[in-house]
Every structure is written in C-alpha cells, then in structure tokens.
C-alpha cells in the first residue's frame, strides 16, 4: 500500500426529516459536492499529527490523548475519531493528516461529520482495511461517538450516516427505529430541476444549547405519553398533551415522519410538485411548532417561493445555517439573485450558494 493516500468525505443536506433522528424517526438526506479532503501519510512511529487548512493550530498525540475531556475545539471532532476507533478495537498506524474543506462551517451542512468521516476513512484505509458496507456502518458509530462524547454535540447520527453511506444520485432513507438505510433515486436533473442550497451565514452550532433543549423536550413529551420515543405516537396521542410547548414539539416530530414517507413516495412517482409542497410544509412546522428557524432562513424560503421554487425549507438543526429550494433549472439563477437582493435590502451579509446535487459518500480518491 502507498504510504500516502487521499480521502474525500462530502457534506450533506437533509431533503426532509428534521429533528427526527433522535426521536427514532425517519430522515432523507443526500450527500453534496462540497467536501472535506484528508491527505494521510503513514508514519513509522507516533504521534499522529492533524492539521487543517481552516485552522491555525494543529493537534498531535495518540488516540488516548483525544479521550473525552482531553481535547476541545475542532480537534475534538478530528482526533476524537481516532479515540473512538481505538475504543472499537481498530489498530490505526500513526498518521500525518492534512485536512482541507469546502463545506462551510456553521452552515448546517455537516462540516463536522464530513471532517470526522474524512479522518475515519483515511485511518482505516491506512490500516489496510476494506471499506465495505459493514465497515462503513462501524465508522458511522465511531464518528457519532467522537462528536457526542468527545466534542460534546448531542447528534443523533443522521449526519454521519449520510456522509458515509450515501450513493451518487440517491437520497438515503434512514430509519432510526430499526437502523435501516435505503437508497432512493433522486434525479432532479432529468426532471429539469435543481436543488439549491443557500448558506445564510448565520452561524449554526449544535453545542450552543438550542439543539439540546429541543431533544430534552421531545424526550419529556415521550415520557408523558408513556412511549419509548415519539416514533411510537400518533397525532391523536400528541393532542392529549396538556403542555402547549411539548405538544407543539411532538406535533412537529410526528408530522415530519409522515412528510418523509410522503416525500419518498413522491420521489418514486416523479411527483416533484408534491415534493415541493412537502418541503414547504416541513419549514412551516420547523418554524412554528419546533421554533428552530430564524429571520434569515425564513427570508430565503419566502424569497425562493416567490421567485418560482416548487418548495423550500430550512435544513439542518436550525438556529441559522442553510435552506434548500427545489427549483426549475431555468429559474435557478433568478432565485439566487432574488435571495441576494433580499439580503441586501434586509441589511444582511451576502449569503452563500452551493450545489445540492446528490453525491457519493466518503471514499478514498
């Protein structure tokens, strides 16, 4: 094996199914062209060194040095993967890892999972392991542990699954009740459509408390309903909750699972108008019942719809980050321009625009 290898790990955008993963629900993400690359050189002896083109500092150490409580900042996500892999029994040689990424930080496009997957795939490839489906699933868990236990972000696993398991031209239907993953074709180009991603530049962080509080509220709603998770609840069940806040949180989760199921049916039937309607309904639910949108995300969604999008919604954990829009290809430039103008008129910093074309998961290149 060559002593130097390169890995590409994509970011992801969630077509629909938000805040459902940690409620044993359904999600439908796709990987996107923006990605983290990891250039790894196998060293004769330790320690491992990790540097990122997006960061001023570097990390150096062995896996134990990245145990929970021993590393913070960006290095917790990268070096934490080495710790999680060691905990899972993998023997990884010392590496010199150089990271670079085109996934914008804080945009809700899984920059952290992209980083983790790039490190994980580089590590196991350097160890001479075959990156088959079973190993990919094991890496999902290692990356999730790194983010949850080392970095302290209460992720449900959606991001890591999307980044590691995705296929080119497909969405990934994830069922967090049984752990299954099904690939669903998404050929927007053949339908004369584009998936636009708009980064509001409003920083999104899973460690700032908003995400965790929503998770706690969902768990409390499930407890009051006497179920293990909100996946087991119906709209009629949720209507019995006497706490308005908990009822609205649970209403979003239960209705969002239904929207994911309908979105899969719409994709398989080529019913793009229905998919667009589901996008917009999801945004309204996230805005009103789950209260994780913000003025900038609402502005993107409203502007895209007014300019010809079939549907639009915030994507990711919320509190900033990105929105997506399903747009006729001939209207794509007009939608981008309209969003830019709306932000200027609102006195906001210029948004970023990314390609949402469904792409392949993390792999050596």
| Alpha carbon gap, first and last residue | 14 Å
Unreliable stretches (pLDDT < 50, length at least 5) are: none
What's the average pLDDT? Answer: 95
Structural class estimated from helices and strands: alpha+beta
Strand segment count: 12
Number of discrete helical segments:
10
Task: State the helicity in percent bands.
Answer: 40-55%
Order of helices and strands: EEEEHEHHHEEEHHHHHEEHEE
Give an account of the 3D structure.
- The protein has about 375 residues and is an alpha+beta fold.
- Helices cover about 40% and strands about 25% of the residues.
- The protein contains ten helices and twelve strands.
- The strands form two sheets. Strands 1, 2, 3, 4, 5, 6, 7 and 12 form an eight-stranded mixed beta sheet that branches.
- Strand 6 and strand 7 form a beta hairpin.
- Helix 1 crosses helix 2 and helix 5 packs across helix 7.
- It is globular, with a radius of gyration of 20 Å.
- The protein starts with a strand and ends with a strand.
- The relative contact order is 0.18.
């Amino acid at each position: 094996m060559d002593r130097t290898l390169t890995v590409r790990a994509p970011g992801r955008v969630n077509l629909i199914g938000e805040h459902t993963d940690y409620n044993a629900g359904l999600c439908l993400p796709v990987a996107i062209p923006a990605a983290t690359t990891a250039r790894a050189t196998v060293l004769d002896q330790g320690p491992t060194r990790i540097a990122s083109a997006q960061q001023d500092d570097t990390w150096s150490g062995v896996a134990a040095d990245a145990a929970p409580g021993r590393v913070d900042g960006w290095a917790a996500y990268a070096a934490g993967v080495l710790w999680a892999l060691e905990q899972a029994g993998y023997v990884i040689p010392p590496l010199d890892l150089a990271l670079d990424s085109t996934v914008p930080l804080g945009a809700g496009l899984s920059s952290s999972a992209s980083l983790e997957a790039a490190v994980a795939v580089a590590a196991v490839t350097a160890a001479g392991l075959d990156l088959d489906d079973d190993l990919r699933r094991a890496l999902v868990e290692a990356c999730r542990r790194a983010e949850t236990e080392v970095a302290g972000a209460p992720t449900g696993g959606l991001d890591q699954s999307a980044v590691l398991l995705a296929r080119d031209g497909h969405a990934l239907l994830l069922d967090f009740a049984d752990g299954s993953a099904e690939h669903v074709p998404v050929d927007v180009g053949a339908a004369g459509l584009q998936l636009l991603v708009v980064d509001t530049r409003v920083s999104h962080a899973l460690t700032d408390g908003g995400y965790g509080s929503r998770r706690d509220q969902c768990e409390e709603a499930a407890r009051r309903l006497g179920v293990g998770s909100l996946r087991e609840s119906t709209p009629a069940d949720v209507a019995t909750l006497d706490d308005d806040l908990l009822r609205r949180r649970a209403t979003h989760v239960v209705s969002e699972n239904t929207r994911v199921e309908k979105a899969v049916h719409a994709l398989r039937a080529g019913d793009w108008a229905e998919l667009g309607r589901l996008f917009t309904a999801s945004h309204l639910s996230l805005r009103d019942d789950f209260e994780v949108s913000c003025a900038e995300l609402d502005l993107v969604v409203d502007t895209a719809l007014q300019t010809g999008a079939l549907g639009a919604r915030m994507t990711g954990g919320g509190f900033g980050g990105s929105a997506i829009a399903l747009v006729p290809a001939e209207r794509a430039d007009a939608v981008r321009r309209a969003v830019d103008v709306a932000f200027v008129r609102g006195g906001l910093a210029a948004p970023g625009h990314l390609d949402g074309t469904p792409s392949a998961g993390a792999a050596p290149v």
